[in-house]
Design goal:
This protein is α+β, with helices and mostly antiparallel strands and 206 residues long. The protein has seven helices and seven strands. The protein has a single domain, classed as Gcn5-related N-acetyltransferase (GNAT) (Aminopeptidase, 3-Layer(aba) Sandwich), CATH 3.40.630.30. A seven-stranded mixed sheet has the order 1-2-3-4-5-7-6, with helices on both faces. The N and C termini lie far apart (32 Å).
């Protein structure tokens, strides 16, 4: 099957979450559906607690993880993307040790002789594209921005945990919020582990 062409580059501006407003990121996530229900907490909250927690509780955790609207903050949990001044995308990217429950998803690096606590390795764990802007290349542009952000912050390597998805196959956000393998491959990531039938660990040395 012929591979689809990569999306045309977007004139997207991505800023750290602490330079964006809470209102803008909530515009991206919306107030209903998968992104709003999870609020980027899947790898930060234990499985059962995550699935049973009300969305308002997870949203409150997410809000506390970023010093929204404070450009002088030292850290952030991700980037917000803008097109023509409108908030359209989010990518979660920060040091891998911020995600204590990667190991529960069989994504931890133990078998690779690494420590999950290594602050030099960063992770990309979630993409959200605002309704009305999907299938336009926003997540691919956010991936490019995430790599640049991690490199600028001194990361030695960066990992993603995407799904293998056949071109043209429509799958729910619940599976592909971590991204798809071909996106990461276009950015130069290579497979370093294959923990489940459709899940990869992909890595880029910086």
């Amino acid at each position: 099957m012929q591979q689809p062409s990569p999306p045309a580059p977007l004139d997207l501006v991505a800023v750290p979450g602490n330079e964006a407003s809470w209102s803008d990121v909530q515009t991206v996530f919306g107030m209903r559906g998968g992104p709003a229900a999870c609020s980027c907490q899947r790898f930060k909250v234990p499985g059962r607690e995550h699935w049973e927690a009300p969305p308002e509780q997870l949203r409150a955790r997410f809000r506390m993880e970023n010093d929204w609207g404070n450009p002088s903050a030292a850290t952030t949990a991700g980037l917000v993307g803008y097109l023509d001044g409108q908030p359209v995308g989010w990518v979660a990217v920060e040091p891998r040790n911020a995600y204590p429950f990667l190991k529960r998803q069989r994504l931890a690096p133990k078998e690779r002789g690494e420590s999950l606590a290594d602050p030099g390795v960063w992770s990309i764990t979630c993409f959200v594209t605002r309704a009305g802007y999907r299938r336009q290349g926003v997540s691919s542009a956010m991936l490019t921005a995430a790599v640049a952000h991690a490199r600028a912050r001194g990361a030695a390597a960066i990992e993603g945990y995407p799904m293998l998805v056949e071109p043209g196959v429509d799958v729910p956000w619940g599976e592909t919020h971590v991204g798809v393998a071909r996106q990461f491959a276009r950015e130069g990531f290579t497979e370093v582990a294959h923990p489940t039938l459709r899940r990869l660990v992909m890595r880029l040395e910086l």
